[in-house]
Input
Amino acid sequence: MAVKPCVIQLMGYSNSGKTTLLTKLIPLLERSGIRVGVIKHDGGHDFEWDQPGKDTWRYREAGASLVAITSKTKTAIVEQRPTQLAVLVERLTQAGADLILVEGFKQESYPKLVVLRKSEDQELLQLVTHVCGIVSWGAIEQTELPHFDINDIETIVSFIQAKMSE
Output
């Protein structure tokens, strides 16, 4: 039976810096030997992963419910339906992830790092559950939870590594 990976969600309003933070955390975590999986929730949009006219696009347009593409270096599978976070976590677990970082899915119950760009964004702390830390662009009023500066990537990595050991 596979060991369950640690799952940590990153929450924040649009343009708070979640994606930029993730792109800085991932290489440090990977270099430390942690196999990182990432799940992005695109709640308000209908993302497009393929280009019109390409074979996989044509298969989907023809009505295929599932389309997979693989090469020497990567594989992608797209399902023509939404998928629950728990199912995505299980799939990344089966693929060998040690750590799964989730951007979005505010209502889920995994530990959350909340990214605050502006002081008025602190209301988000009251709207989500299971907050384990705060990453901000400056000083904040809340002091009960661990707090990290958005640019202190190494300390955030250390915090995540400690969470993985819990």
The first strand starts at residue 6 and ends at 12.
